[in-house]
Amino acid sequence: MTNHKSGRPAPSDAARQDSVTEQMLADFRAYLQRRQLAESTIHAYLYGAEQFLTLYPAINFNNLQLYKCYLLEHYKPQTVNLRIRAMNCFMESLHMTDSRMTMVHIQQKSFLENVISQADYEYLKRCLLRDGDYLYYFIIRVMATTGMRVSELVQLRAEDVRRGYMDLYSKGNKSRRVYIPVRTRKECLAWLRRIRRTSGFIFLNRFGDPLTPAGIRGQMRKFEGRYGLEAAVLHPHSFRHLFAKNFIEICGDISMLSDILGHENIETTRIYLHRSPSEQKQLVNRIVNW
């Protein structure tokens, strides 16, 4: 088809639809930025909205329910709920709150899985020191003794280590202070002096750029073959879990642990009060003698 006034071909329906979709996503990004959401959240929400708009030509109740069915068939419940949150936020931006989707119920586990044991943690530390891999020795040591998330760990600076704590800020200008225990701090400062790093980020790659969470996860997976450890426990969150389990066993203050970990709801922290099936078995075998 030709536009007779201009002499140029008229845009196809597909091209017009692509243009509308691009504008809707641009408007949605602006809406999310005005709400001061984290960039990772913005990326996830935009991905969900774009996926829906790619699959369905219009935003209406029927298509939203079809999308939910599609998600349930293809993804785990946690991912389904993330995409539902994305679409509900997208509809809020379009003033279509009457069509909000309900979240799917996720059965809360009563115990933690895939957490590195204290023995394997000590073994991994010895292996890393033996091989001179001080970078990853301090990465796992800091996470296991502070409870930092890996996304927080990569922000750690030499100045924070000298102070003995790092202040973290999340959405809504909420702040949280993460303390670095004296022993970890002294070891880390000695390492920083050896490598002559006096300021700035301390966990850098070979090019001098800060490590990324994805890069750390990828490197940790290699420890399975190198040191004969179980792959399921070789992930950054495993060391945060180890910190929490040790803290609650020694201190017992779940409210304080919740603050240290930065949990918004103390119910999230209660999982550390429960024991894994293997721990339950060992405890029963040790206690029951009648």
What does this structure look like?
This protein is mainly alpha-helical. The protein folds into two domains: 13-99, DNA polymerase, domain 1, CATH 1.10.150.130; 118-276, Intergrase catalytic core (hpI Integrase, Chain A). It contains 15 helices and two strands. Strand 1 (165-170) and strand 2 (174-179) form a beta hairpin. Helix 1 (13-34) packs antiparallel against helix 2 (39-55) and helix 6 (134-146) crosses helix 12 (236-250). The protein is globular, with a radius of gyration of 24 Å.
> In order across it, which strands form the biggest sheet?
1-2
Our count of domains comes out at 2
N- and C-termini, Cα separation: 89 Å
CATH class of the largest domain: Mainly Alpha
Mean pLDDT: 84
User: So what's the overall shape?
Assistant: globular
Annotated CATH architecture of the largest domain: Orthogonal Bundle
In DSSP terms (H or I, runs of 4 or more residues), the helix count works out at 15
Largest sheet: 2 strands, antiparallel
Portion in helices: 55-70%
Q: Which structural class is indicated by helix and strand composition? A: mainly alpha
Q: Tell me the CATH superfamily of the largest domain.
A: Intergrase catalytic core
Using only C-alpha atoms, the radius of gyration works out to 24 Å
- Give the total of beta strands: 2
SSE arrangement, N to C: HHHHHHHHEEHHHHHHH
The fraction of residues in strands falls at under 5%
CATH fold name of the largest domain: hpI Integrase, Chain A
Question: What can be said about this structure in brief?
Answer:
The protein is mainly alpha-helical. Helices cover about 60% and strands about 5% of the residues.
